[in-house]
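--- STAGE predict ---
source: upstream dedup step, 1 unique chain passed
mode: sequence only
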Amino acid sequence: MTATAPRARHTIAIGQVERILLGARGRGLDVDALLDSAGIAPALLASPLSRVTQAQYARLTHLLRHRLRDELWGLCSRPVPPGAFAQTCRLLVGCRTLGEALDIGLRQYRLLIDDFTPRLQRQGDLASVSVAPRRPFDPLLAYAQRVFCFLAYGLASWLAGRRIPLLSVNYPASTPGPVSEAALVFQAPIRYGGERMAWTFGAGCLELPVVQDAQSLSVFMRQAPASLLVKYRDHASVTERIRRLLRHQLAAELPSLVQVARQLELTPQTLRRRLREEGQVGFRAIKDDLRRDVAVEYLARSEMALPEIAGLLGFSEASTFHRAFKHWTGMAPGAYRQAQLRGAS
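--- STAGE serialize ---
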């Protein structure tokens, strides 16, 4: 059997699943039942390195929004009523510039959220969207602020029809929990300190025209807001260009950093520097992450045998793939498949 070419979509860390469930746990919902309904095996929560697909995560966000009647999934002290996001978007597509849209959108959410205050700030050539907490910090508030900042960033990029390049993202010094993937998610340097979370960009972007309208909004709302979690990854980044080069060569011996640099018309030194600037720890990590993400996709296909998957990922022996996958996710591929298929059923 010949497998279809992998899309190699980025998977999502199980830690994100844990945090998005904080509100549901606090309100006494049956978390295992929610995970089962989303096609996520509850057993994966016991493996800190495991991953879920974008589709599974999107289903979970929709389930939480429906069960909690809250568009921020029970993370704040007062629910954000269903329909608030759509109503705000209808206002924003009528704006002339991105700056005007951000001002109006953040003003709307200051009326809806009591736990933090979102604002657009301008200072010379820089602009930033920040959230200032209005109550003592705890894990729910910390994650609510992270989610709000990222969704606001995704919405801003959608309104402008292009990814807004960020100069930096600031996390408060009191941020609890790991943010190890933050640099890759925002594709910007991460800083720590102060009391506010914020993303900073060139003030010139505020003059970008809003290119969306009522027609494009109707298409957008069928997938939002879950689509914003992944839609505006920078496909022109060096990391994404390397993933595209490698994903069609997985079954063969993957090229070295020097060979990839040559294909990208860069020197190896420049390639390493660009990867550091994008928050990558190295070329090896890109190869491992790509193989892990494709393996997660293949393991969801019950008709594919483990030796076949190993070969498609470039492993000469199934035992080598077994060890590598356990290193990546903390679970053996067979156990991972069984847990996922139980969740999917």
